[in-house]
Amino acid sequence: MKNALVKRILLILAALIVIAAASGCRVSVSWLTREHKALTQGSRYLTESEIRVIALEYKARFERYYKGLLSETFWSREVWEGVTCEDFIKDHYILEEARALLYLNARAEEEGLILTDARKEAIHALSSAFYSELSEDERAYLNCSASTVERVLLLYETAAEEIEKLAEGKHLEVSDEESRVIDISVLHVKDVETASLLRERVLKGENFAAVARANTLDAKIQYSVSREDLLPEIADALFSLKESEISEVMPIAGEYYVFRLDSDYNVLLSSAGKRNLLAARRYENWEPLYKEYLQDHPEKLNMSFWNALKLDLSGDFTDHRLFERLSGTSL
Length: 331
Known about the structure:
Blueprint lengths: L8 E4 L3 E4 L10 H4 L3 E5 L2 E4 H23 L7 E3 L2 E2 H26 L6 H17 L2 H7 L3 H22 L13 E9 L2 H12 L4 H8 L6 E5 L5 H7 L11 E3 L2 E9 L3 H30 L2 E3 L1 H6 L23
Antiparallel strand pairs: 1-2, 3-4, 3-11, 5-6, 7-8, 7-10, 9-10
């Protein structure tokens, strides 16, 4: 993410262009553009479609790990009583990221940060490429054009520039152990008796992968995961295993799992994990300023839109890794 809040140009009756040049804020003509506000922070806002772009990527990011691990019912499972995984990820990931985007872009504009023309051109090309990849189901979900995707990516790049500026002179190091990514194989069954019997077969010498493929409930058995990708109790158990070691039977959401540690250090993904953790440290660096900003800039969330926003979707949805195709996209 890098640089200044993009001025929005609204086309009125195919000819008249209105530009909010003085403040850099977008003009809202929702009856004409149908781009209704989803989240407002002072005079700034994100539209419903812009939020959906963020949501679509978070859907793919979490399904990359958890849908295979916790089955097709992942999104409807409860994190705690009355709160599903879908609710939790919307409220604690997507909404927080949207809030941060607005704040960081506000700071960037005040400080005069501007994206280079070359970076803007690269984002334009990426937005067009991404949009061309979308299925009919994905386009229906987003309900927007490629220009909306481009606006979101510009916001992310602008925010990254501001984060870099706020981190200047700070020591925000991440150790190899903190960023470690491991490779695991997973056996997933419905009952503890079956899990225990299959684990015993493996301990007596049968090949874990063969036993897992023949008995697991999931199509996929191999994953590369970091601590952040896992629930804390699962992470503690898996990251304490030695290479090739088999875990105990682990109850998770009413079903049972056995894990094998295939590799205790995935070099390529651990490097990427270090970048992600560094981004999290940078967030902690500017979070107090962000909280102070919110006190002076009242926020409004369109609850009708928010309650209707879904991540548990059927149809043709693909993991495009859009944000990963940008440099430094994590807030």
